[in-house]
Amino acid sequence: MQSNVGDMGQSILVAHDGSSHAQDALEYALETFPDARIVLFHAIDPFEVTPDEGGLPPLTESWLEEQRADAAELFVEAREGVDDEGVTIETDTAVGSPPQTILGYVEDSEIDQVVLGGRGRSAGPGSEFRLGSTAELVVRRADVPVIVVR
């Protein structure tokens, strides 16, 4: 069902974690819904520990500022890789476990559909055959249609 008819005024949330799958999802959303409002969204996961991180404790103000700056950079890089001319793209972040954060955002905002990658940055060997845990939870629990781009 790839019809552009009726997508005027739709709001599409594209979840982006910096992975190639997420970038594919953004490209898909831009091509498939050219007249929609795209919300490029990043969940700031306080439970994701990066080994090389300078050791800022999660949820402090400085940690949050650093995470938001990283997300802003992620959004710039994501948009550099796609043709988004004439498209309404908004960006937003929220702190929490990615699936819960995405679902909460969809519930609290006027989002009509979610587009996300089938796997995230933590995809291991053999993972191309499985749906990522975030994608799986969002598919199961969202009250709006979800497109998983593989």
Lay out the secondary structure.
Blueprint: E1 11-15, H1 20-32, E2 37-44, H2 61-80, E3 88-95, H3 98-108, E4 113-117, H4 133-141, E5 146-149
Parallel strand pairs: 1-2, 1-4, 2-3, 4-5
Descriptive overview:
The protein is α/β, with parallel strands linked by helices and 150 residues long. The chain has one domain: Rossmann fold (3-Layer(aba) Sandwich). It is 35% helix and 20% strand. The chain is built from four helices and five strands. A five-stranded parallel β-sheet has the order 3-2-1-4-5, with helices on both faces. β4, α4 (133-141) and β5 (146-149) form a beta-alpha-beta unit. α3 packs parallel to α4 (133-141). The chain is globular, with a radius of gyration of 15 Å. The two termini are 17 Å apart. Mean pLDDT is 87; it is low at 1-6.
Shape: globular
Number of domains: 1
SSE run: EHEHEHEHE
What would you call the structural class? Answer: alpha/beta
Looking at CATH, the homologous superfamily is HUPs
State the separation between the terminal residues, measured CA to CA. 17 Å
**Broad CATH class:** Alpha Beta
Major sheet, described briefly?
5 strands, parallel
| Total number of strands | 5
CATH architecture: 3-Layer(aba) Sandwich
Rg over CA atoms, rounded to whole Å, is 15 Å
Query: Overall pLDDT, averaged?
Result: 87
Percentage of residues assigned to helices? 25-40%
The CATH topology corresponds to: Rossmann fold
Determine the number of helices (DSSP H or I, runs of at least 4 residues): 4
Residue stretches low in confidence (pLDDT < 50, at least 5 long) are 1-6
User: What's the arrangement of strands in the largest beta sheet?
Assistant: 3-2-1-4-5
Strand content: 15-25%
Protein name: Nucleotide-binding universal stress protein, UspA family
Organism: Natronobacterium texcoconense
Family: Belongs to the universal stress protein A family.
Domain UspA: 10-150
